[in-house]
């Protein structure tokens, strides 16, 4: 067995020596031309996949260098008062005196303009008693809340910094996003400042609850961007970027059962951010456009119950708020309910199929159009189906009641 192995090794060595000799002879004594050099260069060039990867890495490095100086770490202290209770057998000088304690909330934010306005999530700075803003270079300055909007989960914090030491971000148009495009998050997960993660736009048009602690009417944030770029506690208020380094959204929340990233993160789209933030800076609040309607997305079962084509899409008006904008415009709600698959569902009301010139396929569509381009006092045209016939109704948008 050993002799066979030695024999095989000898043959392999002979082949290698012959190959080396052939290679050496083929080059020796032969003029090296430009075409020869080109052939050699092509032979040792990296595969296209490696070259492409290097390009992607260079792009990400550039984006991080340009945008990270605009992203800040936000530390919020909140006062919490506790009252001690007397324990039998133990003596305390003042058992019922309140004790002041602080809890810390960590989040992210980004520079909006050269005036020192910092954008973040409302839930990061809610009930703040003290706010510290840490910039990428370690500079720490106090911050003051100048505007909040719980219905979009956005807030603006003001800092006093020289204009040459702060760098505003550039905003993109989130309405032009497509699923599959690159999504880059920069923030401070778990307080780890300047963390960048990369993924894709996983989905568009998600709807999130705006304020789970609302008393009275509760609203939703439409047009939400879903991404698989890793987001964790502390990323709230940070940036979600496109492949040019422009902000497409404000990272806001995650879907998780463990409390950390599960590959499903959400960002408030730049289209809404650009509507809300200027108002927060100027007035401290934002008035959301309001129709005064309760809507249900049309489905084949409801369509059949209303003698509409099974493929008819739209937003069915369930109820009309008395005295609201839609009521004044003459909208009609659903007057009866039918049982479909064991559920009581409304039927008979107006079905909204267009907002100005934009097709409405669901109630979420209508809410999205309002959030993107609607404004209080604006008159819009809604096309509705009533009794199988199309009619157009003019509505002057009002201000949404507070949640």
Write a brief caption for the model.
The protein has 3 domains: 70-85 and 96-165, Thrombin, subunit H; 174-283, Trypsin-like serine proteases (Thrombin, subunit H); 289-399, Pdz3 Domain, CATH 2.30.42.10. It contains 8 helices and 23 strands. The chain has helices at 2-27, 34-44, 48-67, 122-125, 270-283, 300-305, 325-329, 363-373, and strands at 71-83, 98-111, 117-120, 130-134, 140-142, 144-149, 154-158, 182-187, 195-209, 220-227, 239-241, 247-254, 265-269, 289-290, 293-297, 315-320, 336-340, 343-347, 351-355, 358-359, 379-386, 389-396, 398-399.
Can you tell me about this structure?
The protein has helices at residues 2-27, 34-44, 48-67, 122-125, 270-283, 300-305, 325-329, 363-373, and strands at 71-83, 98-111, 117-120, 130-134, 140-142, 144-149, 154-158, 182-187, 195-209, 220-227, 239-241, 247-254, 265-269, 289-290, 293-297, 315-320, 336-340, 343-347, 351-355, 358-359, 379-386, 389-396, 398-399. Helix content is 24%, strand content 35%. A hairpin with a 5-residue loop joins strand 2 and strand 3 (117-120). The strands form 5 sheets. The protein has a 7-stranded antiparallel beta sheet. It has a 6-stranded antiparallel barrel with strand order 8-9-10-13-12-11. It has 3 domains: 70-85 and 96-165, Beta Barrel (Thrombin, subunit H), CATH 2.40.10.10; 174-283, Trypsin-like serine proteases (Thrombin, subunit H, Beta Barrel); 289-399, PDZ domain (Pdz3 Domain, Roll). The radius of gyration is 31 Å and the shape is globular. It is α+β, with helices and mostly antiparallel strands. Residues 1-30 have low confidence and may be disordered.
């Amino acid at each position: 067995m050993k002799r066979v192995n030695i024999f095989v090794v000898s043959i392999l060595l002979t082949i290698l020596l012959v190959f080396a000799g052939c290679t050496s002879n083929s080059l020796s004594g032969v003029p090296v031309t430009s075409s020869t050099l080109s052939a050699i260069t092509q032979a040792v060039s990296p595969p296209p996949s490696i070259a492409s990867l290097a390009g992607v890495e260079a792009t990400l490095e550039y984006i991080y260098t340009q945008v990270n100086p605009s992203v800040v770490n936000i530390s919020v202290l909140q006062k919490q008062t506790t009252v001690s209770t007397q324990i039998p057998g133990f003596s305390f000088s003042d058992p019922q005196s309140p004790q002041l304690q602080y809890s810390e909330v960590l989040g992210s934010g980004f520079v909006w303009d050269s005036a020192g306005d910092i954008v973040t999530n409302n839930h990061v700075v809610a009930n703040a008693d003290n706010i510290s803003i840490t910039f990428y270079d370690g500079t720490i300055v106090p911050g003051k809340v100048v505007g909040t909007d719980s219905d979009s989960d956005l807030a603006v914090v003001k800092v006093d910094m020289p204009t040459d030491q702060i760098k505003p971000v550039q905003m993109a148009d989130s309405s032009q996003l497509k699923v599959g495009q690159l999504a880059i998050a920069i923030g401070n997960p778990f307080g780890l400042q300047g963390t960048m993660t990369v993924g894709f736009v996983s989905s568009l048009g998600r709807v999130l609850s705006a304020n789970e602690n609302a008393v009275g009417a509760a609203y939703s944030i439409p047009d939400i961007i879903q991404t698989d770029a890793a987001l964790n506690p502390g990323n709230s208020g940070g940036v979600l970027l496109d492949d040019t380094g422009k902000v497409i959204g404000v990272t806001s929340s995650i879907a998780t059962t463990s409390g950390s990233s599960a590959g499903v993160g959400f960002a408030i789209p730049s289209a809404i951010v650009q509507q809300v933030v200027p108002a927060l800076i100027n007035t401290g609040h934002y008035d959301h456009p309001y129709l005064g309607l309760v809507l249900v997305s049309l489905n084949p079962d409801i369509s059949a119950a209303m003698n509409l084509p099974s493929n008819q899409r739209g937003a069915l008006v369930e109820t009309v708020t008395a005295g609201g904008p839609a009521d004044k415009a003459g909208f009609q709600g659903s007057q009866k309910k039918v049982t479909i698959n064991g559920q009581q569902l409304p039927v008979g009301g107006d079905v909204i199929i267009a907002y100005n010139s934009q097709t409405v396929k669901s109630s979420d569509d209508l809410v999205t159009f309002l959030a993107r381009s609607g404004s209080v006092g604006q008159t819009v045209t809604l096309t509705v189906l009533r009794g199988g016939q199309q009619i157009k109704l003019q509505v002057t948008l009002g201000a949404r009641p507070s949640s």
